[in-house]
Amino acid sequence: FLEWVRQCRAAGIHCPIIPGVMPIQAYASFKKNIVGVSVPQWILDGIEPIKNDDQAIRAFGVEVGIKMTLELIEGGVCGIHYYTFNLERSTRLILEGAGLVNKTDYIKKNMPWRSSFDEKRREESVRPIFWANRAKSYISRTDAWDEFPNGRWGDSRSPAYGDLDRYGVYLKYTSDEAVQNWGSPSDLQDICRLFVKYCTGETLTLPWSDQALALESGTIKDRLIELNSLGYLTINSQPAVNGIKSDDKVFGWGPKGGYVYQKAYLEFFVSPETLEKLKQRMSKFPNFTYNAMNKAGDLHTNTNGSKPNAVTWGVFPGREVVQPTIVELASFDAWKDEAFALWEQWSRCYPQQSKPRELLNELGQTWYLVNIVNNDYHEKDGIFEIFMEDVVAAQQQQQQQEADKTVTAKLQEVSISAHIAPQVEAAAVPEAVKA
């Protein structure tokens, strides 16, 4: 880059030229982004031995970013642009390591979401949780709102969420990129494996998530992997939080000196059969509330449906309690239209009558979108108890399969021994006769 800038200056080009640095976040995205690019051998040699260790990859990416930053500054650049892709932690660590920011300072959120730069949205103080991973869509669909929300706990249907026909539903990628990132699923197990890869960081996006798994969801990553393996396709989640300081680097938001709270929340797609099982179990969990809808709008719920449920709140010095994130039936109804439309958008990335297209269309047409709130925020892992029957059944099935494999292997050994023994005896007779 520095040599190229020197050539530009020699050619009479004097406008500012700003380099862009993209921190290495994951091995898969690194390999994708270096296609057709010349990469120094020391980077390739450094990343290959740790390609299966996500944490080591990010740490190596920070080291590379610090080295690049220092060399660029020494080379006299007028500035550096960092591509964060909403993963600002690596960039912050690079800036700290290069001595450009104080290690005690970090980007802090005023709300649990990233506040909009739009001046008219500065007073926005409440959002439904459903658009947590598709913030751009939420902003575009509520752009005509006069207030955010229209009254502190006002009915979000007035003014209404923007119609999908007006704002459209879009995927982040082209068809070719979607196939490259998400493969060509031919059965439900392929879909489950893809969602598991998203939870492990092997896949950085999904149609319903424009960014990698959030840091706070990463604290329950193992549970999410377990659920997706069982056919609960999770697209949004938050763990329970009972009074963590507002300057916490994972859960913190709002002014200093405060404490933040969260109810455990899960949102996922399930089959109609699985939904029926969940409904039957729900009576055993009086602190749980849920909403479930399919594409046609068939609603199942144990709430009265009329009042919002605050699932995130903060207590700060000299202020009233702030309740910025809610679960609400009216907004859930608007979100489910978008959520199911994304199944259709994803299916269009594949040829007509192909297995992936038919599979994705079937799931979008028949499955339900479900959200569950555990209203007892003291229970750290309580929301996962409703799934324990499925977990235990899956474990027993796996143990049975392993036992069956062991029995089959032993039977094969016995069969082989029975087949070989007569041949060994027959071959040994002539030797005995000679003796």
UniProtKB/TrEMBL annotation:
Transmembrane segments: none annotated. Coiled coil: none annotated. It comes from Linnemannia exigua. Residues 109-391 form the MTHFR SAM-binding regulatory domain. Keywords: FAD, Flavoprotein, Oxidoreductase. GO terms for biological process: methionine biosynthetic process; tetrahydrofolate interconversion. Pathway: One-carbon metabolism; tetrahydrofolate interconversion. Belongs to the methylenetetrahydrofolate reductase family. It holds the Pfam family MTHFR. Its cofactor is FAD. This is MTHFR SAM-binding regulatory domain-containing protein. GO terms for molecular function: FAD binding; methylenetetrahydrofolate reductase [NAD(P)H] activity. GO terms for cellular component: cytosol.
